[in-house]
Amino acid sequence: MGYWNIHIDVGIFLLILYHKEISGKVNWCYSCGSTGSGADCEVNTDLLIDATKQNESFTFVKECEPPFDKCCSIEHFMQSGGTTSFIRDCSDGETFSYKDPSSKSNFSRLDNLNTSYSNETACVYNGQYLICLSLCNSTDFCNGPSESAANEIFHVMKLLVFSLPLIVMFFLV
Ligand SMILES: *[C@@H]1O[C@H](CO)[C@@H](O)[C@H](O)[C@H]1NC(C)=O
Ligand SMILES: *[C@@H]1O[C@H](CO)[C@@H](O)[C@H](O)[C@H]1NC(C)=O
Ligand SMILES: *[C@@H]1O[C@H](CO)[C@@H](O)[C@H](O)[C@H]1NC(C)=O
Ligand SMILES: *[C@@H]1O[C@H](CO)[C@@H](O)[C@H](O)[C@H]1NC(C)=O
Ligand SMILES: *[C@@H]1O[C@H](CO)[C@@H](O)[C@H](O)[C@H]1NC(C)=O
Asked: What is the annotated signal peptide range for this record (predicted)?
């Protein structure tokens, strides 16, 4: 009796874990905005990565709340070769600052570009500004720098640490 119970428990547990990894949502994104070129939000890789490791200060990062948990976004406005503003945020994939009715700029063509959350960047020029939009849902904090190798190892470790007691139990039964 115990054998099959545990077998099923392990299966369900791994399924839950797996589902959490691929559920098509993001839990955390970089979230910051800046004007002008070379601001921390745009270029300070070390500062941004550090922010993902701190619990207390939510500067530069945000826990995404529905419906803004579909993907992470970057809106990058440029003029004459320089950045005029740079925005990272949690996103519903639909609401963007470039769509703000109070904004004089009209980038409606971006609405038709399908970036399918793949972290590809689509850009549109409206005669005054160039705006590039990137959406991604592959990982938390995908809209910014990552210590990808370190993250991979962390994921594997996490999986092992959580699974090990169950695997050991499985073999003891
Ligand atoms: C990202 O979103 C796309 C489109 O909604 C979805 O097909 C895909 O499974 C999602 N990927 C992840 C890793 O959540
Ligand atoms: C961050 O907070 C979570 C839960 O609130 C806790 O489990 C974790 O250990 C904390 N991490 C750090 C680095 O303090
Ligand atoms: C933006 O441009 C599109 C065509 O390019 C037009 O249909 C739409 O009405 C414009 N929107 C605003 C707010 O000017
Ligand atoms: C983007 O592409 C996906 C897959 O090709 C499709 O399901 C989705 O409807 C498209 N979204 C838009 C806004 O065109
Ligand atoms: C997505 O693009 C941003 C900006 O180019 C980059 O910093 C980030 O590492 C990319 N994320 C992934 C998961 O490739």
From this structure: 1-24
43 Cα–ligand 5 center, Å: 12
> Does the CB atom of residue 126 touch ligand 3 within 6 A?
no
**Residue nearest atom 13 of ligand 4, based on CA coordinates:** 114
Tens of pLDDT, residues 13-35: 544 444 444 556 889 999 999 99
Tokens (6 digits) for 125 = 């020029």
Q: Check if the beta carbon of residue 33 is closer than 8 Å to that of residue 41.
A: yes
Dig out the tokens for 37 from the structure. 């070129």
- Whether the Cβ atoms of residue 92 and residue 34 lie closer than 8 Å to each other: no
Q: What phi-psi label fits residue 117: left (phi over 0), alpha (psi between -120 and 50 degrees) or beta? A: left
- Rounded to two decimals, the pTM is 0.70
DSSP state at residue 59 = T
Q: Which domains does the chain have, with CATH numbers?
A: 25-146 (2.10.60)
On whether the CB atoms of residues 85 and 78 are closer than 8 A, the answer is no
pLDDT digit string (tens) for 123-166?
999 888 999 999 999 999 999 999 864 455 455 555 656 666 66
